[in-house]
Design goal:
By secondary structure, the protein is an alpha/beta fold. It is built from 7 helices and 7 strands. Helix 5 links the parallel strand 2 and strand 3.
């Protein structure tokens, strides 16, 4: 089951990345020519940067999985990391990540890889792993995912998850706030799989008849328990009403948790 999901999602993301690149119009390639350029400059990233300052990435080996096109990991390197490795299922994303690495001249490398099949050479390799928004929903089994995270981390290595809150996924089916059509809400207790039939272009917002893809609803308890079961100790957990998913409807739901930060140590 996992392999089929991985390969269909790989095809879907390769398709979507081309839409992303068109929408960005080489802005990342131009940006990373500047040593001070970062993509971590959204309003919600102010909170992230404060947390990262406390963790201190200076002279650390850092990773991100999945890493998309590497823009966040390369930006994190500018906080003093000595080395970085990113992994992603998308061939197109990794190709762009390698291009951005050459432009930025940073000590990073990127591998096109099924996350659950990362080589043992990376066991006990990372001081810090970053998990960004929209990552966990693509893995049907979080226990398998965090078992990989655990083996890649050094002893005392840390993870920081800055993710879309499961609550925000309630509104994936076009829930209309004014009508209060609760029957359209994505069920919190039904794992899925679900799909994005209009495509994955969250950059340009272009709708298209997308290749098959599968995402999964994970309860907050699913996420926390998967971390605990894999010998990773949660140190900090905070919820925010910051909207991260480019969902215009959800931006008005400032009374609900829409994102969270979780910090943990092996």
């Amino acid at each position: 089951m996992h392999k089929k999901i991985t390969e269909t999602n790989r095809t879907a993301w390769n398709e979507a990345q081309k839409y992303h690149q068109k929408a960005r119009n080489n802005s990342l390639q131009l940006g990373f020519k500047d040593p001070n350029f970062t993509t971590l400059n959204r309003d919600c990233d102010e909170i992230l940067m404060k947390k990262l300052k406390n963790i201190n990435l200076n002279n650390k080996t850092i990773g991100q999985l999945p890493c998309n096109n590497g823009r966040e990991l390369l930006s994190l390197m500018k906080l003093g990391a000595k080395k970085a490795v990113g992994f992603d299922i998308s061939d197109v994303a990794i190709e762009e990540a390698k291009e951005l690495t050459k432009i930025s001249k940073l000590n990073a490398k990127f591998e096109r890889k099924d996350i659950l099949e990362i080589n043992n050479e990376y066991n006990n390799y990372f001081d810090f792993i970053y998990i960004s928004e929209g990552s966990l929903q693509w893995f049907p089994d979080l226990n398998s995912y965090f078992s990989v995270i655990s083996r890649l981390l050094k002893k005392d290595g840390k993870i920081l998850i800055f993710e879309i809150h499961p609550f925000a996924y309630f509104f994936e089916n076009g829930f209309e706030i004014k009508k209060q059509n609760f029957q359209e809400i994505t069920p919190y207790f039904e794992k899925g799989p679900y799909s994005y039939e209009d495509g994955l272009d969250y950059i340009g917002g272009v709708k298209y008849e997308a290749k098959e893809c599968n995402w999964f609803m994970h309860k907050m308890s699913d996420i926390i328990n998967a971390i605990i079961k894999n010998n990773i100790k949660i140190e900090e957990f905070e919820e925010y009403n910051l909207e991260m998913a480019n969902n215009d409807e959800a931006k008005f739901l400032n009374k609900f948790p829409l994102s969270y930060i979780l910090i943990a140590k092996k």
